[in-house]
Design goal:
Blueprint lengths: L3 E5 L5 E5 L4 H11 L4 E6 L5 H13 L2 E5 L2 E6 L6 E2 L1 H6 L6 H9 L1 E5 L12 H9 L3 E5 L2 E5 L8 E3 L5 H11 L5 E5 L5 H12 L3 E3 L5 E5 L8 E3 L4 H13 L3 E5 L7 H9 L3 E4 L4 E4 L9 E2 L11 H8 L5 E5 L10 H6 L3 E5 L2 E5 L8 E3 L3 H13 L3 E5 L2 H4 L5 H7 L3 E4 L1
Parallel strand pairs: 2-15, 3-14, 6-7, 10-11, 18-19, 22-23
Antiparallel strand pairs: 1-23, 1-24, 3-5, 4-5, 7-9, 8-9, 11-13, 12-13, 15-17, 16-17, 19-21, 20-21
The structure holds uridine-diphosphate-N-acetylglucosamine (UD1).
The site of uridine-diphosphate-N-acetylglucosamine has 19 residues, from helix 1, helix 5 and helix 6.
């Protein structure tokens, strides 16, 4: 039977949490290692289920993965098996990134169509179109995408319809070993993508403009294995800060990069949190009751869609009505019903969430629908009256290392059951 989290609400969180490496960077760094045979060392890797799943993808391809604390050593073979199996890809959408890496390295790739969080339809057409313009061809057989580029990939100009993180990363992974120059226009600018570009550069890739909307990649003949430390997880930091804000707490997150959370910190300040930053720490004191504000999710450096459920949860007890506009995922609203079972008054209207602030939430049984919605429900439970059981803990385990231990260390009354 799946685990649940049992939370008794009412404690103001207090203390300090050390932030680990970003899930959304570590997974991509692991895929990037496939581009060069030999031993890679990736540090600051979180101990979460998605990293284990990616390690199994790499092992299927023929690599070995050894973890020592937060250090992951990956030994990549000379001839990787160009295939990612269905049972693993179904569990985690990020496995689609092996497409670019394996096409570049092996001239072919067979990847089952991805799963991951249920946010409604999550197509990969930008990935495919971009790789096709570099010379790859694709066929779909029984749910498995067969990509082929027997003569290698060729650099070209790609202009993305939307600054998709995954598509930008897939094209970057493909382009570093392509023949000639690739330019990715309307590229994503997320810090995790910049981290990937830094790792590839250490491996010998030639990349200009990562972190801006235009990335230029000069293909090289071969790459070398390298060592790299994963960028801190801005979403883990943001989630603990939201927990502090929600419980009228006093929480510090350390070993993070506040500049990666500029918009999120601005919104926390505007709901009434006191926020102070140093180069690598953020301290927050939560308000008695949040103020209502409007928020729109946008690609980086806008407000992160993966902080949407935590924000709606904070605003659910605000003094007034707020509107959150979700611009990235049309289907990210399944958790609203769960929040309403706890006494919130939130509803979706098209891509908007209308949040009428209520005085109090009350504990009950709810289902975690995905990583961030699950975390948001735990945060709601910590302010709610009485006991809450958050079922389907496995969703939260995909993204948060030491979740229960960390929250307990801040004084939360939470246990895994
Ligand atoms: C990554 C993150 C995810 C985050 C998201 C947006 C990882 C493992 N996941 O997901 O946590 O929420 O960035 O910051 O890093 N789209 C298309 N066609 C495509 C590709 C994307 O229509 O080929 C659409 C998507 O459906 C979505 C939007 O573009 O509406 C953004 O998606 P994208 O930036 O690609 O997100 P992911 O890389 O999947």
């Amino acid at each position: 039977m799946a685990d649940s989290f049992h939370v008794r609400g009412g404690t103001a969180l207090s203390g300090s949490i050390k932030i680990g490496g970003a899930k959304n960077a570590a997974l991509k760094l692991m895929v990037a290692s496939l581009l060069a045979p030999g031993k890679h060392h990736i540090g600051n890797v979180p101990n979460i289920v998605d990293v284990d799943t990616m390690a199994r993808v790499l092992e299927h391809v023929g690599a070995t993965c050894d973890r020592d604390g937060s250090m992951l050593t990956i030994d990549v073979p000379d001839d990787p098996l160009p295939e990612a199996p269905l049972d693993l890809v179904r569990q985690m959408r990020a496995s689609i990134l092996v497409l670019g890496a394996l096409l570049a390295r092996a001239g072919e790739a067979r990847v089952a169509l991805p799963g991951g969080d249920d946010f409604g339809s999550r197509p990969i057409d930008f990935h495919i179109k971009g790789l096709e313009s570099m010379g790859a061809t694709f066929e779909l057989h029984h749910g498995v995408l067969h990509g082929s580029a027997p003569d290698g990939l060729t650099g070209t100009d790609v202009f993305l319809e939307f600054p998709s993180v995954g598509a930008t990363e897939n094209l970057l992974l493909a382009a570093v070993l392509a023949d000639g120059v690739t330019t990715i226009g309307n590229a994503a600018r997320e810090p995790e993508l910049v981290d990937l570009a830094q790792y590839l550069t250490t491996m010998g890739a030639k990349i200009d403009g990562a972190g801006t909307s235009t990335i230029e990649i000069h293909g090289v003949g071969a790459l070398e294995p390298a060592s790299h430390s994963t960028v801190p997880d801005r979403l883990e930091a943001g989630t603990y800060l939201a927990a502090g804000a929600m419980t009228r707490g006093h929480v510090t997150v350390t070993d993070c990069k506040p500049e990666h959370l500029r918009m999120e910190l601005r919104k926390l300040a505007s709901i009434g949190c006191e926020v102070e930053t140093t180069e690598s720490t953020i301290t927050l004191v939560g308000p008695d009751r949040p103020a209502a504000v409007d928020v729109a999710t946008l690609p980086y450096p806008g407000f992160h869609t993966d902080m949407h459920p935590q924000m709606v949860t904070m605003l659910s007890v605000a003094d007034g009505t707020s509107i959150l506009t979700e611009n990235i995922y049309a289907g990210r609203f399944r958790y609203l019903g769960e929040l309403n079972r706890m006494g919130a008054d939130v509803h979706a209207d098209g891509q908007h969430v209308v949040i009428r602030g209520v005085d109090r939430l009350s504990g009950c049984e709810v289902d975690a629908c995905d990583i961030r919605a699950g975390a948001a429900l735990v945060i709601a439970a910590m302010r709610a009256d009485g006991d809450t059981l958050i079922r389907d803990a496995q969703h939260i385990d995909r993204g948060y290392d030491r979740w229960v231990e960390n929250l307990q260390s801040l004084g939360a009354d939470i246990e895994r059951v």
